[in-house]
């Protein structure tokens, strides 16, 4: 028998970026909220002087224990899915702040094209440009409608950068200056301008200067130590939920965080959620938390899984294309890159920051003509100097022996003489790419694991060839003595790290026939349930997802406040 607690206004499942933003905005509006986080408490003090690459980057200190809960994967339905037992393709965050603690800080706005991708593609190229099986759709919201929320997220996080010359219109500039530009970054800028491209400093959540945000949160500037991705920031310079939005929610006195609380079900009756059931992982006790509103803000896979195990929403059927929960899973296409080796020039590549970078969007979205190309959308092309930590980085020219004196000589020579230009590619959804519950494997509580069915498509191979060649052209213009181009996309390989940019499964749209949530991320099928995160993306753009997740979370918060007063499906 579950222990039943007193009812609250709102229960929030997962306290990362989305959950933290929701908590801050709702408590400021006077709502009493409980945040349930299955991981442990985290504070900035946890990372004082802990630049331990082995512990954090290679032994995955900050990530989910895959022996207790993981995902299963298969490239298609003909093959049995197997569990991911060691980290590879992506990293599943664990603990207060979630992936918002261990991210790099690259903070983009998706392009106007992204939000109306189907309509704009057909308008320019005709409906035959969209291949059979590709299930792109408009998001039910435009860039202009979302722009104020992008602005709000950037000011809260203290994002620094330069406006994207090929991006959407902005209501204001970035609240802080761009990060410092290294010599290599300046070489990239000069070379790409000569190629008639439009480079700009990458938007960064690593503060370039001390900053106080509109909520009164003050943070210090980045030290360029190079320990961002897979690490917490001991300075608080990298924006994360623990040092930005969560303190704001706590200060109101209306937010209670319960860590080590694993939510297993959303409880519901007569088509309305009544609360959630969770396990206190410290005692094993089953607890029921009643609430007027349930906000699901965990990671992509957990959002979809919780709805499926709770029997909320219609599960997606890949055979018919009907149903919505699990639909339009997408990843990121990141095989396109080029490495340049310099014989005479030497750089300080050890110093850096997660989003110390320069980038361009000439080949992203629909910023270039796709008429004669066998793909739509594109990629963001960049050079980023995130800090070449010593264990994981040892780039040598092809043909170098893997051991011995020649290997050692090349390793020492090229450690600070290699430059990688890479493309962060978009990923389009297909009818046969989806999320569902595994029929064989279960977690430690007996609930089925989330199953991914996904592989790279012909469209991805064509895009990687195109983008890889562009990366090589840039390095040649930068003066590299030897350029190695990577422009081949093989089958999806879950054992090799690529990015943690998983999207879809609980997508947004204008109709309950084709989407799970509306533009406020409110479920069509259960009006007092909101599902917030990259699970709402109907495809993945050529960018990191966090800026768009943040903007959608702020819009969802507005919607939840409205719903708390009047009820009903929001329009």
Automatic annotation (TrEMBL):
GO terms for molecular function: oxidoreductase activity, acting on CH-OH group of donors. Pfam families: GMC_oxred_C. Keywords: FAD, Flavoprotein, Oxidoreductase. It comes from the Bacteria. The keyword ATP-binding does not apply. Residues 436-553 form the Glucose-methanol-choline oxidoreductase C-terminal domain. Belongs to the GMC oxidoreductase family. This is GMC family oxidoreductase. It comes from Paenibacillus nasutitermitis.
